[in-house]
TrEMBL record:
GO terms for cellular component: exocyst; growth cone membrane; synapse. It comes from the Eukaryota. The keyword Manganese does not apply. Residues 20-117 form the Exocyst complex component Sec8 N-terminal domain. It comes from Calonectris borealis (Cory's shearwater). Keywords: Coiled coil, Exocytosis, Protein transport, Transport. Component of the exocyst complex involved in the docking of exocytic vesicles with fusion sites on the plasma membrane. This is Exocyst complex component Sec8. Transmembrane segments: none annotated.
Length: 311
């Protein structure tokens, strides 16, 4: 329209064009009014529908905005809760560790009393396990506990001297108890022979079938897998029964003593002590045997003299 009016050279042409345009506008307005009258219901429905859609979109935007704000708030709260839960979890682990340490301290305080009971009943393996475990705990996790310093020194001292007791027990079973069995057998044979009226020569000591530690070791080393007379015994298989007499089986008892010395890491000292005391112990065996043979001979001589048999 502007281009048409601007290109017109004459005012009349412009007026004519203007009149034509105005008429066209009026005709368009009339047509539009007629269409509005004809389609008023549809137009009203369309406007209301559009207005409803616009409102819903606006509400949806507001709700989405609120949901985003709520999500951000939840995320922040979850971070706070996570930190709080992590803190509570760490505190729970710390409290559990403290309770375990307190239980361990309570058990360690009872170790000296239990140790005396085990030593009195000669359950040395249990006593050694208890002592080594207590000392390791006192010098490990409980090292910083100042209230246990006296107990730590006491148990450490007992651990340092424990192997001496085990070595003495080992020597007693190696040299004294094993030879006592020979003497007891000889006494029994002597009593039986003294009951017989006709005097017979003193029976010789039969030590060939005696189960000494050396014979046990040799037999266990050279026995066949199917042999039922002597089974190879490993230190790992030896266990201590708290209800039985520990000295009932001398060989097993010596195995328990060696296992206890191994737990104390005193095997080199044990070997050295056995080597140092070997000659002295063997002399003591000879001395005891000599005394025993002399006593038996004297008693038999007394019995024969009473029967008027100088022989």
């Amino acid at each position: 329209v502007l281009r048409t009016l601007s290109t017109s050279d004459d005012v009349e042409d412009r007026e004519t064009e203007k009149g034509r345009l105005e008429e066209a506008y009026e005709k368009c307005d009339r047509d539009l009014d007629e269409l509005i009258v004809q389609h008023y219901t549809e137009l009203t429905t369309a406007i209301r529908t559009y207005q409803s859609i616009t409102e819903r979109i606006t509400n949806s935007r507001n709700k989405i905005k609120q949901v985003k704000e709520n999500l951000l708030s939840c995320k922040m709260l979850l971070h706070c809760k996570r930190d709080e839960l992590r803190k509570l979890w760490i505190e729970g682990i710390e409290h559990k560790h403290v309770l375990n340490l307190l239980d361990e301290i309570e058990n360690i305080k009872q170790v000296p009393q239990k140790l005396e009971q085990c030593m009195a009943s000669k359950h040395y393996l249990n006593a050694t396990d208890m002592l080594v475990s207590a000392v390791d705990s006192l010098e490990g996790p409980l090292l910083q506990v100042e209230g246990l310093s006296d107990l730590r020194l006491e148990l450490h001292s007992k651990k340092m001297n424990m192997h001496l007791v085990l070595i003495d027990e080992l020597h007693r079973h190696l040299y004294i108890k094993s030879t006592n069995r020979v003497g007891q057998r000889n006494k029994e044979k002597g009593r039986i022979s003294s009951l017989v009226k006709d005097a017979s020569p003193v029976p010789l000591m039969d030590v060939t079938n005696l189960s000494t530690p050396r014979k046990f070791l040799e037999t266990s080393q050279f026995s066949t897998p199917g042999s039922s007379s002597m089974r190879e015994t490993s230190l790992l298989e030896i266990k201590e029964d708290m209800e039985l007499d520990p000295e009932e089986n001398s060989t097993v008892f010596m195995g328990i003593l060696i296992k206890g010395l191994a737990k104390l890491k005193k095997i080199p000292e044990t070997v050295k002590a056995i080597q140092d005391r070997l000659e002295q112990e063997l002399k003591q065996i000879v001395k005891r045997s000599t005394t025993q043979v002399a006593d038996n001979g004297y008693q038999r001589g007394e019995n024969l003299s009473q029967e008027n048999q100088p022989r």
